[in-house]
Model the fold of this input.
Amino acid sequence: MQFTDLKAQYAALKSAIDARIQRVLDHGQYIMGPEVAEMEQALARFTGAKHCVAVASGTEALLIALMALELQPGDEVITTPFTFAATAETIVLAGAKPVYVDIEPDTCNIDASLIEAALTPRTRAIMPVSLYGQVADMAEINALAQRHGLAVIEDAAQSFGARYQGAASCNLSTFGCTSFFPSKPLGCYGDGGALFTSDDALAQACREIRVHGQSGRYHHTRIGLGGRMDTLQCAVVLAKLERFGWELERRRALGARYGELLRAAGAPVQLLTVRPDRDCVWAQYTVLVDERPRVQQALQAAGVPTAVHYPKPLHHQPAYAAGQDPAACPNSIRAAQRVLSLPMSADLTEADQERVVSALAAALANTAAPAAA
Done:
């Protein structure tokens, strides 16, 4: 069983992907070839954002968005500690300081009700993470940001294709930043990403930053970086867009079915809540369990692969712990001890899903037995 079945996806799209790649090989424009602009236009239409800027990775998307805001040393960006390191990493690389706000225990997304208390005169932006494929409370976050004159950058690395109050993830705030890492809901065959904005000036700044700050060839108007997305990777994304709508429907259905099966099995797991005004595209299907190491070991023995997203909150990570209260953000600490991601992709079969649930229920029953005794 595959944790993310990219082989089955390629088999279904082989002719389209091969043709797209061959076209790039034939024209030979491997950097900023025509597929880059074609993909940007297609994804802008998909999200409804005015601008899409293709970049080298989801990390670059976040960094370029922050650079476009022209942060100054000592500026602060509010975010969640329960996320991949790139969220805080890019804030630090942009010269700012990450300020952590705890998560909601039932969604694992940033708790918007706690953000205002974390604001200081140095706060410049808020970076909520759409974790596991569900958007955070963007209406509340945007309203708060507007009151205080702050930018909002949605870290949508896991949520491309998700909807929130009728709008698309990546078109909900100042910036939306996503990743095309192969295992993401819309993935390429290497690193890739994109940022979205409907602000013309910010879009132009991002386009310049991704090509070493150039507004024209060898005319550098700002500090930039090498942040372009390869033409070949854009070609892969364009081919995958052909069935992306079906994949999103499939992910939603499989996520709902996981919940039904786990409840029917009586498995003692905590399921994540999906709020009624949004959906989830389940970049990972994640549950919360007790005695996770023993559960993982039992699943491995049953041939079921698992992963932990993420085992340690950022304010406990050596690179980001300086000056942080280790006891802060208790919901994030507790989630890091309990989250467990199960096999998930649009090509997961119902039979394999049932096998996963059966193995998990058995593993949980076995781990609970000694405690009961």
The chain is about 40% helix and 15% strand. The longest helix spans residues 350-372. The chain has two domains: 6-242, 244-372.
